[in-house]
Structure formats: structure tokens, C-alpha cells
Design a protein that fits this description.
mainly alpha; 228 residues
């Protein structure tokens, strides 16, 4: 704890990407006032240091164990996708969007490409939220029914809706690839502020998560459903 509390907010945010939502929650400014230590910042805001540290440690402790996806049932795989990927997307979209907006507002003149990043991320956010809603309300329940003993489930044809989902996966992937190209593969300019650097790290992690997300659906869940 002693090492963490004496670290600057800036370094905590840059080195421990997972804790950013905790810093945001407590309005701990890791950008403009990022030189302050966690201890100093909590004292200034009358925050209970131990509580903040506990939340940070909890956030850091959330690691993904090695999972054998091929051995999962369709229902288990759907649950995994919902918990590990749908929740991730819904949680991180507003955080990343807020950071892009901040950089665009404060430094947009110096870095004109940020406006394009903002526009593209808005588009992919709308696409993914709508996409996940269709999966959660229509496709995933249909796949579960397909593997149930219910006679109604045996008459479900999922070829068309799965094809639509695959096309939407491709579109989201293309939008994020454009962001990757525009940002020079998430490379921060030398004069970029902390929020700018964190924003790029978040976008990189967001794209990586989408790749894993789409892999589980396109290459494991959907073929499983089609073969049943």
C-alpha cells in the first residue's frame, strides 16, 4: 500500500490501466493534476485513502484465467461472452468516449485527427450497443433454445441472423481499424497529455477485446449453433 499511495496519479493511470475507472469514480484528476500522489489527492478531497486503495487493488486483481472455450457448452459460452465482453463494452464505452471528448476539446487544434477518432468511436459505439442488444434479446436466447429439449427450439433456423451478426462484427472491426490507422497504431505524440496517452491505450485494449469477443462468437459459438 505504501508504494501505491505515494505514486503520482499520472503514473498510476499510465502503469495500471485497469484502475482508471476507480480514479474517475472519485474524480481524482490524473491529467492536469496528475503530479499529486494518491495520498495527497485523497486528502484534498477528504476521501478515505484505505477505501480508494482497496478498490484499486480489487480492480487490479480482476484477471482472466485460462479458459478452455472449446469445452464449454453453448450456454456456458454465452454466459462467458456476456460477463467478460458485453459488460466490458458497456462499461468502457462511456469512459473512453469521455476521454476522447476531453482531448478533442482541449487539444483538438494541435491534434486534428482526434475529431476523426471521436466520430469513428461514436459510430462504433452505436453499432456495438445495438448489436449486443440484438444478441441478448434475440440470438442468444434462440441458440439456448436450440440446445434445449424444447421441441420449439428444434425448429429454429439461425443461418440468417448469424450472417447478420457476422457482417456487423466485420463493420465494427473495420471502424476500429480505421481508428488504429488514424492514431498511427495508437502511438502517442511526444507532447500528448496523460489523458491523450490513456485514451490511446484504452482504444487499443478496446480493439483487442473486440477481436477476442468476435473470435468466440464467429469461430466457436456460431459454428456450434449451425451444426446442432
Amino acid at each position: 500500500m505504501e508504494t501505491l499511495v505515494n505514486q503520482s496519479l499520472k503514473n498510476i493511470a499510465l502503469e495500471k490501466h485497469k484502475v482508471i475507472p476507480v480514479l474517475e469514480k472519485y474524480s481524482l484528476d490524473f491529467c492536469c493534476k496528475g503530479g499529486k500522489t494518491l495520498k495527497q489527492a485523497c486528502a484534498e478531497k477528504n476521501l478515505e485513502l484505505n477505501d480508494v486503495v482497496e478498490e484499486i487493488n480489487t480492480s487490479l486483481g480482476k484477471t482472466t484465467k485460462n479458459v478452455s472455450y472449446n469445452n464449454m457448452s453453448a450456454e456456458q459460452l454465452i454466459s462467458y461472452i456476456l460477463i467478460h465482453h458485453h459488460v466490458y463494452v458497456k462499461t468502457n464505452i462511456p469512459v473512453i468516449f469521455n476521454h476522447i471528448q476531453k482531448v478533442a476539446t482541449k487539444h483538438g487544434e494541435r491534434f486534428p485527427y482526434i475529431q476523426d477518432v471521436l466520430s469513428l468511436f461514436q459510430e462504433v459505439s452505436v453499432e456495438l450497443i445495438d448489436h449486443m442488444e440484438k444478441e441478448e434479446k434475440i440470438l442468444f436466447p434462440s441458440i439456448k433454445a436450440l440446445f434445449s429439449n424444447d421441441e420449439k427450439g428444434q425448429n429454429i433456423n439461425l443461418a440468417a441472423p448469424i450472417h447478420v451478426m457476422e457482417m456487423e462484427h466485420e463493420k465494427a472491426g473495420d471502424l476500429l481499424f480505421k481508428i488504429r490507422e488514424i492514431t498511427n497504431f495508437y502511438t502517442a505524440p511526444e507532447t500528448a497529455c496523460t489523458t491523450h496517452r490513456i485514451m490511446l491505450d484504452e482504444l487499443k485494449a478496446f480493439e483487442e477485446d473486440l477481436h477476442q469477443h468476435v473470435h468466440l462468437e464467429n469461430n466457436i459459438l456460431f459454428p456450434m449453433a449451425m451444426q446442432n
